[in-house]
Amino acid sequence: MALIRRRKPNEPSKTSVQREEEEEEEDDSKNKHPKKSYKKSKPKWSCLDNCCWFVGCICVTWWVLLFLYNVMPASFPQYVTEAITGPMPDPPGVKLRKEGLKAKHPVVFVPGIVTGGLELWEGHQCADGLFRKRLWGGAFGEVYRRPLCWVEHMSLDNETGLDPPGIRVRPVCGLVAADYFAPGYFVWAVLIANLARIGYEEKTMYMASYDWRLSFQNTEVRDQTLSRIKSNIELMVATNGGNKAVIIPHSMGALYFLHFMKWVEAPAPMGGGGGPDWCAKHIKAVMNIGGPFLGVPKAVSGLFSAEAKDIAVARAIAPGVLDKDLFGFQTMQHIMRMSRTWDSTMSMIPKGGATIWGDLDWSPEEGYVPSKRKQKNADTQKASQDGLESNISQIKRTNYGRIISFGKDVAEALSSDIERIDFRDAVKGQSVANTSCRDVWTEYHDMGFGGIKAVAEYKVYTAGSILDLLHFVAPKMMERGSAHFSYGIADDLDNPKYQHYKYWSNPLETKLPNAPEMEIFSLYGVGIPTERSYVYKLSPSAECAIPFQIDSSADEQYEDSCLKGGVYTVDGDETVPVLSSGFMCAKGWRGKTRFNPSGSQMFIREYDHSPPTNLLEGRGTQSGAHVDIMGNFALIEDIMRVAAGATGEELGGDQVYSDIFKWSEKIHLQL
Amino acid sequence: MASILRFRKLCYVEPVKFQFFQPQNFDKKEETVATGAKTSLENNEKRNKRQPKERSCVNSCCCVIGYMCTTWWLLLVLYHCLPAAFPGFQVPESPGTRLKREGLTALHPVVLVPGIVTGGLELWEGKPCAEGLFRKRLWGGSFTEVLKRPLCLLEHLALHNETGLDPPGIRLRAVSGLVAADYFAPGYFVWAVLIENLAKIGYEGKNMHMAAYDWRLSFQNTEIRDQTLSRLKSQIELMYVTNGYKKVVVVPHSMGVIYFLHFLKWVETPPPMGGGGGPGWCAKHIKSIMNIGPVFLGVPKAVSNLFSAEAKDMASIRAMDPGVLDSEILRLQALEHVMRVTRTWDSIASLLPKGGETVWGNLDWSPEEGYACDLSKKRYLQASAGDKDTNGSDVKMDFHVKESNKNFWDTRTNRNTNSSCGGEVWTEYDEMCRETIRKIAENKPYTARTALDLLRFVAPKMMQRVDSHLSYGIADNLDDPKYARYKHWSNPLETKLPDAPDIEIYCSYGVGIPTERSYVYKLSPNDRCRSIPFRIDSSVDGDEDSCLSGGVHLTDGDETVPVISAGFMCAKGWRGRTRFNPSGIATFIREYRHKPPASLLEGRGLESGAHVDIMGNFALIEDVLRVAAGATGAEIGGDRVHSDIFRMSDRINLRL
After folding, report:
1. Domain membership flag for residue A653
2. Which among A54, A59, A202 has CB closest to B176?
3. According to a count of CB atoms within 10 Å of the terminal CB, is the N or C end of chain B lower?
4. pLDDT tens, A78-99?
């Protein structure tokens, strides 16, 4: 109403008395500031009052919205989504139930690294009141409240790789261990919900949660986790009328279960004493989801400099933030110190050395063009496409084999042009800046400048020399790790030394169990650029900080290049390259090979990534990303069919989008 | 000054002018409306005067809410800043910390067996009304769903009336793991305190197992539907092996006690019916069984619960406010619904008093007679059995209609009288006509034996189901092959303990709280259909010293279980080498005198003896910890008795 009055002065009645107008306008301004006018009248509106008024308004609106949200029928978001995108497909559970599928084989989930929850059983003073609360997974509230205390409790002992004295952090057990990683961020929940639709429940589903920080054999030594899994599988098979179990490992769980299969048949002191046909008797199929059988390059950069693509990008955007000593946080160093005490990260260092991952001049994926696969779909252009492809590969060859190279020029140069100075004999000088950095202890401080320089001067590291590099920069960690893991390729699998447990999680150094009827599936997403090798540089600030970091300025000028922000990418599921998840099933184990003497059947099921079409879809029902694939309807359907009794042949055998077979051919591995 | 004013004027007016540029033009064109505009202007002025008042109302509301919120937050912040140990209130050191200092460490793996009601249940498959509750707790937790959709929840909690298993389309399963029964509702601990103390001396997930089961089912059905007993067996075997071949200590609570008794028999029975563990299984795997608040011989509460869905607390609510529970306001019929649901649960029937008149007394006699209530600390010198007190605590049910006894179970139920009442709330009472109900009432008192007949009469379907799973008698000859059937396994008076002389059995329970023992009933006044025709006569009160208050006769116990039920087997039935305990398993009685919490800050008390609160009793926890760390019964002090349990037991003439 004020606006109508305001019109008046603009109307031709300018002739009216000035005073009158003045009065009116004063009135006007009064109306515009009701609060001001209040100040003059009875109640005093102080600053406090205004604040409270404001708070009150916000609260009321909040409550009204909350009320509306609660009143809203549960199907409303779905209704909106359907209105926008058209009817949603039935979730696989509903669809397959209509088809008449029923729960048949008991199902075992083996979660991967990081996704399983950990809870506190005994802690130091600073973690008072957190007994049996989740330190890892859940809301992560404690990370913000007492970050240093949290880091202290999450770390393991640097020498033994087990609990530090006075601290016991244990895996959560039951399905809750990994159904949701954080509130709203599902991992296994969608799969569980769909399995429940066809009749699965707690007695036929088992989450084999384990402490993912420990090395695999240590989970048995400390928690007897492997014995537990064995006993539970036996129980489920017995109580379900002898139907064998379907195992579904995800990510690192695939390696863990590989270890388990060897462990369970090994004789008692070191193994589970299940006898040579335990797997044949109890396991129907192993459906590895995104299994990093041959390791992931990401693990190298994680151990080397506690960073990965995402962190390098963050550093490129806001250079000072992560490195700042602001607030005395030294985030990266703390993370590095913590994650270097976790043996499990070492299980994912690339295995098979140069034979698998390529050397200075050669790599199985060479010639891969990121956008190629998409174009290939248009079949009509295929011929010209092929020509173009060969052109590109001639112009620029990406040397994926050089997992770490110092400087972009080195990454691209011909191998003969690179001058390398061996670092292995370099003397580790006593660091100058050592004393000031005591609280955040990383092994880099022991290296001194000489050592750091030597590392940088070696220039290029392949999968083979990566191990030497890590041994050099983190000797304690690798010493611990090499007692539990091995990264080579076995020449003679019957050599008695391969009975040691450190070889059990390396598919290139173990035989599969003697179980010809067992089926092994490799299910993984493709179509997302995945880290494969890195361009490093020396960190500018040498003091206290981690001396190496990914050179995020290294970019390629081509549109469809694989180099972005210092990282060469290749096809994969954003974390695991296709080569690692697919090679064993495509070639290493296919048919009767020396790694698979009983000829268990192998199937590759790839799922092409297509991002969610809109925000309402959440993380997508056709995603191929490493964790989001657990919500991929096609994958869930495959799993449910197998759990309900189908074989790999009935699913449709292999389903391949990537070049995995071509690349596997290029790898010369004695089979 | 003026310039400032003008500037401000400009600031406020200018943007608005711009915003409403077009209407302005419009006005200019139609000058004829100017006069009309003026009148409207005056109106506006009036409204403007009213406006401040309106705004003030909204404003002050907002303001008040703002104040409240801010104070709330401030308090919250203060609360969080509060040091954990409140100054002036010294929390006594927990037994775990103390025993750890003494050097105790985890030795024997521990199995916890929760009782009825305390275990959580979650939904795995439901009707459309329960959408979005998949794997959410329907029972236990915060119970928000009870308030949101009560009928839906009751529908899901009920079992099938004929089979005692899942109704079609509904799968409600027990939560597994330690979370199943650590807290019943947020802040209301059950096992949490014990778990925390065990953890202090080194226990963790690998040597502590919560044997959660669906407490609604009859015991054998938990195996048939969920294979719970098999799971428990496999878990115990696993823990035995992985903990260096140390036998397990089992800690059952409440109904878990008879569940585990059932397990002991089941596990040694050959496969089709049992677990096939062989005759030495218990001796090999179990070190001791520390029963907490055991209900070996049942509880009288179960009778009143099944008979009229009420108990002492319910009756006293009714006495205070007669109309509330019975009124059909909102058509809630809460009690009838509750009754219908609880009658589908076989497990409640497992709590019915066992042993009949021999144990619980007949019309003229009861083992507890001579017990004085409010002076429970003072012992009466018992004169003689004939010198009976007027309380009549021997009588199970006592109707105040004084007539001659009639045998009511000759009268057949008449189905046509109340046929109009077969509405949505179906209780078996609807099938009985008023005539029969009156006849039930005429047959004045019911003892432990006849109470069973009474229940068979008023709830034939339920008892028919139950009779195939449970039994309440006393065995004459335990070697009779009929006792090999599983229905007898959970009745300590009809089974032998396993052949395992090294096991120790503890009966740990609270004493010193008046506990329901028998009831005075009356006919429900309103003849309305679909209501429960009987109710506890809460107007009946004894004199000052008497045990009768609010229609309930009380005796010593832990508020739920009378001493006689909790202690008799350990005090007499199994003591030494008896026919129920052929291998001579050692038994120990550990009683804990109830002491109410001294102050509010203590919560539910560190020395409580109440049925559930005893799980936070420090003395009890210490005993459990010591046994788990390897002590024997003699080492923790043998028997520890406050009540008259031995004298009461002596009075029970049971052939041993």
Report:
1. yes
2. A202
3. N
4. 677 677 766 667 788 888 988 8
* Partner-chain contact B199 A31, CB within 8 Å: no
Local confidence band at B94 (pLDDT 50, 70, 90 cut-offs)? confident
Q: Is residue B269 part of a domain?
A: yes
Same domain, B277 and B325: no
Domain that holds residue B595: 109-119+174-297+562-651
Say yes or no to pLDDT of A377 above 50.
no
B321 is catalytic: no
Query: A42, A57, A67: which to substitute to probe chain B, counting the most B Cβ within 10 Å?
Result: A57
Distance from CA of A179 to the nearest CA of B (A): 11
- Domain housing A264: 96-294+510-526+578-661
Whether residue A275 is contained in a domain is answered as yes
**Contact check, Cβ <8 Å, A60/B12:** no
Please report residues of B whose CB lies closer than 8 A to that of A8: 41
Q: Taking CB atoms and an 8 Å cutoff, what residues of chain B touch A128? A: 84
Q: Per residue in A127-176, pLDDT tens?
A: 888 888 888 887 777 777 777 888 888 889 888 888 998 899 999 988 88
Q: Using DSSP, state whether B300 is helix, strand or coil.
A: helix
CA-nearest of B443, B498, B492, B491 to B466 is B491
B163 touches chain A (CB under 8 A): no
- Residue contact B199–A131, C-beta within 8 A: yes
Task: Give me the number of domains chain A comprises.
Answer: 1
Q: Which site among B43, B206, B285 would you substitute to test the A interface, given the most A Cβ atoms closer than 10 Å to its Cβ?
A: B206
Question: Number of folded domains in chain B?
Answer: 2
Domain end point (choices B524, B555, B586): B555
Annotation marks residue B254 as catalytic: yes
Catalytic residue among B326, B558, B613, B623: B558
Task: Report the distance separating Cα A90 and Cα A96, nearest Å.
Answer: 9
- Active-site residue flag, B558: yes
Tell me if the pTM is above 0.90.
no
**% pLDDT > 90, chain B:** 20
Q: Identify whether the C-beta of residue A459 lies closer than 8 Å to the C-beta of residue A420.
A: yes
DSSP B558: B
Assess whether B460 and B322 both reside in one domain.
yes
Taking the CB of residue B322, how many other CB atoms lie within 10 A of it?
12
- Give residue B107's pLDDT: 93
Tell whether B327 lies on the interface with A, counting CB pairs under 8 A.
Answer: no
Nearest to B24 among A7, A74, A197 (CB): A7
Closest Cβ–Cβ partner in B63, B131, B226 for A53:
B63
Taking the alpha carbons at both ends of chain B, their separation in whole angstroms is 108
Same domain, B293 and B336: no
The pair of three-digit structure tokens given for residue B630, joined into one six-digit string: 């390897």
Helices (H), A306-371: 309-317, 319-323, 331-339, 353-357
Residue at B387 is within a domain: yes
On whether both B326 and B386 belong to a single domain, the answer is yes
What contacts B10, CB < 8 A, 6 or more positions away? none
Q: Which member of A179, A211, A323, A573 is catalytic?
A: A573
Residue B73 lies in a domain: no
Q: Are residues B305 and B291 in the same domain?
A: no
Between residues A361 and A37, the one the model is more confident about? A361
Which residues of chain A make contact with B61, given a CB cutoff of 8 A?
A: 56
Residue finishing a domain among B504, B523, B555: B555
Average pLDDT estimate for A363-386:
52
Residue B263 lies in a domain: yes
Structure confidence at residue A404 (pLDDT) = 85
Q: In chain A, whose CA is at the least distance from the CA of B130?
A: A74
Q: Which of B254, B304, B347, B565 is catalytic?
A: B254
Residue A272 has pLDDT above 60, yes or no: yes
Cα A393 to Cα A154, A389, A455, A529, B211: the distances in Å are 46, 6, 31, 18, 63
CATH of the domain at A141: 3.40.50.1820
**B609, HSE (Cβ side, Cα atoms, 13 Å):** 24
